[in-house]
Amino acid sequence: MKPPYGDVEKLVFGRTFAEHMFKMKYSEGRGWHDAKIEKYGSFTMDPASCVLHYSQEIFEGLKAYKALNGKMLLFRPEQNARRLNRSARKLCMPEIPEEDFVNAVKELVLLDKEWIPDAPGTSLYVRPTMIASEAFLGVHPSKEYLFYIIMSPVGPYFKEGFNTVSIYVEDQLVRAAVGGVGDIKTGGNYAASLLGAMKAEEKGFSQVLWLDAKEHKYVEEVGAMNVFFVFGDKVVTPQLTGSILPGITRNSVIALAKDMGYEVEERRISIDEVLDGIKSKELTEIFGSGTAAIISPVGLFHYKDNNYYINDNKVGSITRAFYERLVGIQYGKIEDTMGWSYELK
Ligand SMILES: Cc1ncc(COP(=O)(O)O)c(C=O)c1O
Q1: CA nearest neighbour of 336 among 328, 62, 80, 77
Q2: Host domain of residue 217
Q3: Could you tell which of 125, 219, 225, 322 is best to mutate to test the pocket of ligand 1, judged by most ligand atoms within 8 Å of the CB?
Q4: Of 36, 198, 224, 343, which sees the most CB atoms within 10 A?
Q5: What is the pLDDT of residues 220-239, one digit of tens each?
Q6: Are 185 and 53 found together in one domain?
Q7: Residue 61 alpha carbon to ligand 1 centre in Å
């Protein structure tokens, strides 16, 4: 029988949605209430809803995987629950008990389990979202919220698949500054990144690498990924300065790197150090990490009109090893020695 999402080969990231969605309301004094699962569909909103004017909105992204043995797995969902609550605190929004968050994801995925594709590299992307729904104009926290979860069966995030991507290093525009909200998952950060992303796309690059807001000197992160640099046996990633997202994949890669015997450094890394490393070949591999992008090898940095090729634009062996270990755990292909898989049953 044909799966409900149609031809798996034709899935474009985030364009097809599963049959159901989870919804829950919040109001001051009453707390979270009216949790329910219903058919995916439009909902009405007052045009004065706070989120539409002042962007009081947060979201998360995680995936459900179909393992070879038919099991259905989530990857560290409690980390998404925790990060959503961190985001909520920073934007004066109500927290959701971690257990309730994970249970909502679980119930929804189990109901729509036939929407989890099983072809290699595919999964069901889960998007929990919280928006400020009170209708008023004025800059203060909403007293009403809507939390909902939608899901989308997905193939690879990049059209390149597990191949090198080329990255435009943005040296003018800024995505987020220390003291702001770059370290949480809120829509405004992504709106602020669109112009840079368009600029990169027009020049033929698939992603943007952002530099720090103050000096335009230190590497921050890529559009929807954290970034890692391999110097021989040493793996370096920008430290969490407060303006980059603490990625769950980033955290997992750091743990895997240590487990695999690599030295790991979380520190400031300047674009000059990166370019010098590429030129001297001491920097042997670069890759991005993220739920959507998984592990994404980088073959080229474009900075100030110059192209810098990394590892001859080929996928490096360490990048591949991280990819295989991570994907192996996510799809239940190898033993989950880290205790990260959450079985849905
Ligand atoms: C800006 C940004 N950085 C990093 C990441 C990677 O985070 P995670 O590994 O939790 O998906 C994402 C994707 O969610 C992101 O949007």
Answers
A1: 328
A2: 165-330
A3: 225
A4: 224
A5: 999 999 999 999 999 999 99
A6: no
A7: 8
